[in-house]
Specification:
By secondary structure, the protein is of the alpha+beta class. A hairpin with a 5-residue loop joins strand 2 (about 20) and strand 3. About 15% of the residues are buried. The protein has one domain (about 1-40, about 75-150). The protein is extended and about 50 Å long. The chain is built from 5 helices and 5 strands. It has helices at about 30-40, 65-70, 85-90, 90-110, 150; strands spanning about 10-15, 20, 25, 120-125, 140-145. Helix content is about 30%, strand content about 15%. The strands form 2 sheets. The chain has a 3-stranded mixed beta sheet with strand order 1-4-5, with no helix packed on it.
């Protein structure tokens, strides 16, 4: 919801999921190994503050609008969510005043809360069925799993 008005948001990568080897130990998947090898020793990303047009006035979200957006969100849960999505949606009327206040404050201040700037990134093969070079990072596209609040917009 709130990230529509925020010009720049940061996504921090979490450790990608790992699969288990036949021996039961965890191993990195080929895309993860390739990406880590390519970025090893690189400086962390930097982000600049948006200096373009600013949102100077807006109509605040009403609890009804926030409720409607949350209820039409995909029913998936992100590990970064404090509650599973189905539980959050069952408690939507209890949580609604707090979520609405957070969204409106985010729009008013032009800042997305740090807790909402994270995503779990999973590399997925761009074209399945074709000969894929699993060692090459460009063979994959990132899929971001966002929290319910950010996903709900």
């Amino acid at each position: 919801m709130a990230n529509q008005a925020v010009a720049v948001s940061t996504v921090s990568a979490q450790k990608p999921s790992r699969r288990k080897s036949k021996e039961g130990g965890k191993v990195d998947t080929p895309p993860t190994v390739a990406v880590r090898a390519e970025t090893e020793g690189s400086d962390p990303p930097t982000f600049s503050v948006h200096t373009g047009k600013q949102l100077t006035s807006f109509t605040e979200y009403t609890p009804g609008e926030v409720r409607r957006l949350l209820l039409k969100s995909p029913p998936k849960t992100c590990p970064l969510d404090p509650l599973p999505t189905d539980v959050s949606l069952e408690l939507v009327d209890v949580l609604l005043p707090f979520i609405t206040a957070m969204c409106n404050a985010s729009l008013r201040e032009g800042v997305l809360p740090a807790s909402q700037k994270a995503a779990i990134i999973t590399p997925v093969v761009k074209k399945s069925g074709l000969a894929v070079h699993v060692e090459e990072p460009q063979s994959y596209r990132p899929i971001s799993n966002l929290t319910l609040i950010v996903e709900g917009d």
